[in-house]
Amino acid sequence: MAGHSKWANIKRQKARVDAKKGKTFTQLSRAIIVAARSGIPDPSGNFQLRTAIEKAKAAGIPNENIERAIAKGAGTYNDGEASLEAIRYEGYGSGGVAVLIEALTDNRNRTAADLRAAFSKNGGNLGETGCVGWMFAQKGLVQLLGEVDEEKLLEASLEGGAESYELIDDEEEPGAEILTDIANLEALSQGLQQQGFPVKAAELRWIASNTVEVSDRDQARSLLKLLDALESLDDIQTVTANFEMAEEVLALVAV
Predict the structure, then answer these.
(1) pLDDT value of position 172
(2) What are the Cα distances from residue 102, in Å, to 16, 26, 95?
(3) Residue 112 domain-assigned?
(4) 184 to 47, 178, 209: CA distances (angstroms)
(5) CA nearest to 7, candidates 182, 112, 155, 139
(6) CA atoms of 6 and 226, how far apart (whole Å)
(7) I need a labelling partner for 96 at 20 to 30 A (CA). Which of 187, 221, 245, 255 fits?
(8) Cα-Cα-Cα-Cα dihedral of 224, 216, 134, 116, to 10°?
(9) Residue 155 φ then ψ, to 5°
(10) DSSP letter at 145?
(11) Which of 19-33, 34-48, 146-160 has the highest mean pLDDT?
């Protein structure tokens, strides 16, 4: 939609003015623990774990912390802490915008209370399981960072079984995002790397089936404050919402 920022672009622009950059050590370490627990604790044979480790290293987490997180996930390191479980929460932001949240927690009650407080203080409310989840589908996403030849990308995407791609028209951070079926994510990522594409990350992402246009400045400010509040919680791994925002409104409120 011309003149409007889609969710991924909203996230990129917002990150530039956020005081907190990226995920905390706690969030990244927890992702490693769960990845190691859900598959084999060897990154060479566990794509989810390998991706989590790459993100942790990029954020500057020491190798010993990464190894300890892998051991926790494998069950070979016992520090007396409660085990983590992955939970999906759903709710509404200002104006009925759908919000989907993925959490890793050792205390469901604490996490739910923290989320409920964040929603209520920022014009939204935590909903029941299933209230908005049907609006989202989980896909595999390969992110390219750098100049991309669209003709070559189209050919590579077709060969690699991608569902769609979108070029990122950003002077500071050009690139592209390619969507595929979850089961095809690793093969697509490796195929693009082998062909010389600048692959920055390969991850799972929730994609909204429909979006809500936000043009009101007060609503936009409320939504961005809600996202900040949710993302600041250590138990929270990902936050996704189904709104698009007029670029001029985003420029006014994301300061």
Answers:
(1) 76
(2) 23, 15, 22
(3) yes
(4) 11, 12, 20
(5) 139
(6) 17
(7) 255
(8) 40
(9) -65, -45
(10) E
(11) 146-160
